[in-house]
Amino acid sequence: MTRKPILVVCALMLLVVGIASAKSYTFTLTGPATLGVLKLKEGEYSVKVNGTTAVITNPDGKDLKVALKVENGTQKYNDTTVETSTKDGSTVINAIDLQGTTTKLVAN
After folding, report:
1. Between the N and C ends of the chain, which has fewer C-beta atoms within 10 Å?
2. Is 48 within 8 Å of 64 (Cβ atoms)?
3. CA pair distance 11, 100, nearest whole angstrom
4. β pairing state of 63-72 and 53-57
């Protein structure tokens, strides 16, 4: 086997490992909330970051995509937390801090 095919195989393996290792973070909503254009119901969710898009998996296992701004702070977050506010009597998700990272997902 020549070096070129070996390099191609190694590059493909690294790509697959990078995709498979995308970390997901869980959070629980105790009531309905809005995240961007998404209407989320009460339950446990997971979120994965894919560039400027967050893939939110709802309690039913359905993947929902929403565009979010990714900000990096200076200190790691101890927990995955959801920052909310109330607008017109409804809960609105403003940001999600990701545990073990300096990453904050901010709603547009």
Report:
1. N
2. no
3. 28
4. antiparallel
CA distances in angstroms from 40 to 21, 62, 65, 82, listed in the order given: 26, 12, 12, 13
This prediction's pTM: 0.78
Residue ranges in the chain whose pLDDT is less than 50: 1, 7-21
Task: Report the C-alpha gap between 63 and 49 in whole angstroms.
Answer: 12
Q: What b/e readout covers 30-65, taking b as 16+ CB neighbours within 10 angstroms? A: eeebebbeeebeeeebbbebeeeebebbbeeeeebe
Distance between CA atoms of 53 and 68, rounded to whole angstroms? 6
Average pLDDT over the chain, rounded to whole? 85
Tell me the per-residue pLDDT of 80-100, one tens digit each, with 9 for 90 and over: 999 999 999 999 999 999 999
Structure tokens at 77: 């977050």
CA dist 72 → 3, 59, 62 (Å): 39, 28, 28
Report domain extents, the chain.
Answer: 24-107
